[in-house]
Amino acid sequence: MKMSKIFFGCMLAAVFSLTSCIKENLDAGLSDGDEVIVTLTTDIENITESQSRALSNDQEQKLQKVKIVAFNNSNNYLYVRDGNVSNNTNTTGTDGSGTATIRFGVPPSATQVNFVVIANADNEVMAAIAALPSTFSKSTFLGRAELVKSLSGNNAWTTTGTYAPIPMYGEVSTPTTGILRPRLLITSGLNLTRMLARINVVATSISPTTSTGFQLTSVRLFNINRAGHIVSGLAPAGTGAGQLNPLSYPSASNCQSYTLSPAPTLPADNKLTNTIYAFQRDAGTTPVVLIVGGKYGGSSSTETFYRVDLRNSSSAILGLARNTSYNVTISSVLGHGYPSVDAAYNSTPMNMTASTTAVTWEDSDVVVFDKTYAMGVSPRSFNFDNKGQSGTITIKTSETTLTPTVTLSGSPTDITSAPAWLTKGTLSGSSPTFTNTITVTPNTGTTLRTGGYVHITVGRLKYVVPVQQRNVAD
């Protein structure tokens, strides 16, 4: 399976003021004086995909509830904690990415502790722990059948009405010195990824109103899994009475269905994005099938239906990977489709040309995609302490004919004079990977330094990395 993938190491340092001690789920007999407050900051990844969002930026990266399951340096179970979440917002504009701060209280430890962080799956985590003996390993916990999310019947993942936050998973470890009083701040390494794949259908190059145009009206999804593992690294088809195996739906009455409302009248609106979410599945021998409904020849025409198989540019079947966006671009429609959903599903593709590009979120901080090239930037922001420090920006791009331009500025939107405390080194590396060092001078003042920005440009691809620095008193 060929995919457009950009991989990066996670490197985010976001520092926020400490709140009061967390008392939920502390070990019996543990008093406030004994606990250590652990603060984690995390990246929640996404790609640039603005406009017509069924889920808002904040919803796609929302951490509603967080469980932290701790294991010792031999990966044996220690305890579980509730995480107190703050600063869980979209911090980087319209790309839907975000960061969050997670705090929890734990007993001190003289050795390394490994944290498994699972968001938006509170009941599943507790059910898995309850089903295990008092002593168990991390691998045993992660492989539990309870850590599976499923959909009943033929329901789709809820993107309207009562929104269901998307389960996410990540792991991070303390320093080898363990957890010491009074607090521990871990500012890099925790990279939360969603358990779902996202499918976008775009026909923005076609007019929805002309006599030879095409108005997208609906999308139906066939041959998908009805459940998936919350944690990554496990095969989508596993134990659990076969519930993770893909199903081939025989009729339109039991597929996932999505409609456009209101109907598009402008080419820019001729798309269905950030609405279709599905569980991970292997490529297998039967493709994921989209039945695209639309009106050929203008809005007054009758809706007909077109089959689109999820395949790459070499016609190989694409599976669905977690935390990955599958962008289906309809480039041409030559006539009416089939008269019914069932007829389209049971027939070969006709009168529609479409291509699929898979852009992975996993292991990447930022992916900016312009339908041709992609660019990744790591980290997404810099949050330095008050000491003079340097950090490295890594840039990866599939636009191999151009060299990135890195410019410091005092504005997130324009190139202006950069603050005097912010400097950069010389760009190094070669296509497709480049690095640049960013340096801040010591902050001896009493206020937080803000207003520093790193503008990165590769052709039409642009991204801005904000920089801030704590003060002495923080």
Structure in words:
With 474 residues, this protein is mainly beta. It folds into three domains: 158 residues, Immunoglobulin-like, CATH 2.60.40; 164 residues, Immunoglobulin-like; 89 residues, Immunoglobulin-like (Sandwich), CATH 2.60.40.10. Helix content is 5%, strand content 39%. It contains four helices and 29 strands. The strands form six sheets. Strands 1-5-4-3-6-8-10 form a seven-stranded mixed beta barrel. Strand 28 and strand 29 form a beta hairpin. The longest helix has 9 residues.
Question: Within the largest sheet, what's the order of strands?
Answer: 1-5-4-3-6-8-10
* CATH fold-level assignment of the largest domain: Immunoglobulin-like
Tally of discrete structural domains: 3
Shape summary? globular
Q: Which runs of at least 5 residues are low in confidence (pLDDT < 50)?
A: 1-33, 46-54, 90-97, 235-250, 361-366
How many helices in DSSP terms? Answer: 4
SS strand fraction? 35-45%
Main beta sheet: strand number and arrangement?
Answer: 7 strands, mixed, barrel
Which value, in Å, is the CA radius of gyration?
A: 24 Å
CATH architecture group name of the largest domain = Sandwich
How widely separated are the two ends? 49 Å
Count every beta strand, where a strand is a DSSP E run of 2 or more residues: 29
Whole-number average pLDDT?
A: 77
